[in-house]
From TrEMBL:
SUPFAM superfamilies referenced in this protein's UniProt entry, alphabetically: Family A G protein-coupled receptor-like
Coiled coil region boundaries: none
Protein name in UniProt: Olfactory receptor
Function in brief: Putative odorant or sperm cell receptor.
Keywords: Cell membrane, G-protein coupled receptor, Membrane, Olfaction, Receptor, Sensory transduction, Transducer, Transmembrane, Transmembrane helix
Origin: domain of life: Eukaryota
Location of the G-protein coupled receptors family 1 profile domain: 40-249
Family designation: Belongs to the G-protein coupled receptor 1 family.
Topology within the bilayer: Multi-pass membrane protein
Pfam families named among the record's database cross-references: 7tm_4
Length: 310
């Protein structure tokens, strides 16, 4: 039976305060990772916008993912960096709800967009003749909007369940942001049941989208293996390599958090770093460094800039 059911106006984010001597070092590390994350995603969106050769569904999906990941990091990392420089790390209850809703919604949107990118590659490789008819830029835009709607529908549902009641003291969130598991445990209601439901929803979404991506790659692999020339096989695989790498990293790190048994222990704050900081950092690097069209577009922009300077 929980006590101290007074109305809370704010939460205290415990976060990295348990590592007082490492906070300056952590600030430098996270800041150095965050800058190239933002720069890389903005570069992808900018190159897709200015280079008409990149106005194709594959790169429109990539640009949509970059925008979603930029918003995703903005909900967490700036607040985390600021908290590393101060002693009193508070967030209002309303602000906590907004942060949680945004984080869950954008995380879900990322999963759905990665699934759509897999579907796009499936159509391009397995149905090349019908691909231009099925995957138009208009259809691509509608699918991206659907991904945002689905992501935030799930997010609002989960956040509403967590914030439907009051919270009990102590108001200490044992995390560096308003993670749903850390916040729901402060609820004065039956937090175990609510935690089970919201976790089940998140895990279902995570596993469901991952299985859909795996299914598309099963069909892609079976099609590619039937291509007679080695050059054709390599070309087909090269269009999927970056996406598949990001999928493995994204779902791999997320599964560590959501599929980790509660009894296994471990610091949730440290466990969350890979999917809140490292995954967004690696994603634009992989998509740009392994993509010939992106590198050519970047050289083209640099060439125009140099010619204007002269």
């Amino acid at each position: 039976m929980k006590i101290n059911q007074t109305v809370l106006e704010e939460f205290i984010l415990v976060g990295f305060s348990v590592y007082p001597h490492a906070q300056t070092f952590l600030f430098v590390v996270f800041f150095c990772l965050y800058l190239p994350t933002i720069t890389g995603n903005l570069a992808i969106m900018g190159l897709t916008w200015v280079d008409r050769r990149l106005h194709t569904p594959m790169y429109l999906f990539l640009s949509a993912l970059s925008f979603s990941e930029t918003c995703y990091t903005l909900t967490i990392i700036p607040k985390m960096l600021a908290d590393l420089l101060v002693k009193y790390r508070s967030i209002s209850v309303i602000g906590c709800g907004l942060q949680m809703s945004s984080f869950l919604g954008l995380g879900g949107t990322n999963c759905f967009i990665l699934t759509l990118m897999g579907y796009d590659r499936f159509l391009a490789i397995c149905n090349p003749l019908r691909y231009p008819l099925l995957m138009t830029n208009m259809a691509c835009g509608k699918l991206v909007v659907s991904a945002w709607v689905a992501g935030f529908f799930i997010s609002v549902t989960e956040t509403g369940m967590i914030f439907r009641g009051s919270f009990c003291h102590p108001n200490l969130v044992k995390h560096f942001f308003c993670h749903m598991r850390a916040v729901v445990r402060l609820s004065c209601l039956d937090s175990k049941f609510t935690e089970f439901i919201v976790t089940a929803i998140s895990v279902s979404g995570l596993i469901g989208t991952f299985l859909l991506i795996i299914l598309t790659y099963v069909f892609i692999l079976s099609t590619v293996l039937r291509i007679p020339s080695a050059e054709g096989k390599q070309k087909a695989f090269s269009t999927c390599a970056s996406h598949l790498t990001v999928v493995i990293i994204h779902f791999g790190f997320a599964s560590i958090v959501y599929l980790k048994p509660e009894a296994s222990g471990g610091d949730d704050t440290l466990i969350a770093i890979p999917y809140t900081v490292i995954t967004p950092f690696l994603s634009p690097l992989i998509f740009t460094l392994r993509n010939k069209d992106m590198k050519n577009a970047f050289r083209k922009v640099l060439g125009k800039t140099n010619s204007l300077n002269k």
